[in-house]
Amino acid sequence: MPNPQIDPRRWAIHHPRATALVVAAITLVMAWGNYVLPKRGLLDDIILRDGDVYQAADRYVGEKVADGFVPGELVPFVLEFPAGIQTPADLQRIRDFTDRVKSTLGPAVLSLSETPAYHDTGETLLTDPYIPPRVPPDLDVASWKARVAADPSVYGVFVGRDFTWATVVRYVGAGYSDTAEFRRIAELLEERTIPPWEWLLKGDVNAPPHVGVAGSIMTRGFFDQGTWIDTMLLVSIGIGLAVPIFFCCLRSVREVLIAVAGVVGLSFFWCRGLIGVLSAFDLPFGERPTSLLAYSNCIVQSISFVLHKLEALRAVEEGADPPAGLADRWLATLESDWLIACTGIIAVFGFATLYSFEVMPIRE
Fold first, then answer.
1. Which helix (H) or strand (E) holds 76?
2. At CA 215, angle to CA 209 and CA 216, rounded to 5?
3. Which of 53-57, 131-135, 155-159, 246-250 has the lowest mean pLDDT?
4. Distance of alpha carbon 87 from alpha carbon 102, whole angstroms
5. Could you give the 3-state DSSP secondary structure of residue 156?
6. Fewer CB within 10 Å, N- or C-terminus of the chain?
7. This prediction's pTM
């Protein structure tokens, strides 16, 4: 049994304001952890076994960086022309979209507006792009198509062989953030600034008609955004289901609110924030779809702990000679803490065995 003189539980009960300040301080730290929390895909850095083929491939690519190799990714935007490219206005559309991508996302962009249409006049080599900054309204589109079709470096690459689509490709260099790039692309397509609060519930990108986008950055972005929304939805459902359970057991709206907001909700917030705090110290942790298992455990354990504690309080209050003061009644429930502690210790040891797995999501 802890020494009553140094028992932090007794100190917390006798100093509720100081305890509230400590909880608030921890919550602020965890709020920062939630803010800096890195998102990881289900397969990111998943295998820890030395000699694994995927790990060896990643190491090989990393070694080539010292030789000047710069890994990056492409984000292709596809402009659709259902009736085909027929008029100078269609070409101007490609040019205008290319300029918007460059001004919003950066200059590393390739399209028919950036690719030179080399032409030797006998005196000089012309390098004007296939689509100039201002397309002449009297441009002969049929002749233009013939010149494009004669160039295998662009025909079927930056424009369809039936001229029903054209691509604007952005190159993204190393060191980028998936989330930041995904959101910048979404703002480009929606032609507006998307506020941070909207990303809490945003599950799709509303692209203009006949405009599409592809690439791994978008795939991971949609995956992460969907994971976040599902996490919030499933956790909210779990907490929502806990409310009637608490009420049936406790029969007190005040105790239900304390249990749900003060313990169950806070445990999820602290758990998620702790992942961010650990990652800030260069520990290899991040939020993945499998993090839902930890969040679900928070809900289950919190319900168990709260019910044990409040039932112990109720037993004291309904006893033959309950203490007069609220603090004294809480002190009388300290014996139940050992049951809660044993339950927690069993859970800790049970989950600790998972660290033996050489799969990162399981270790997390």
1. strand 73-80
2. 135
3. 53-57
4. 24
5. coil
6. N
7. 0.69
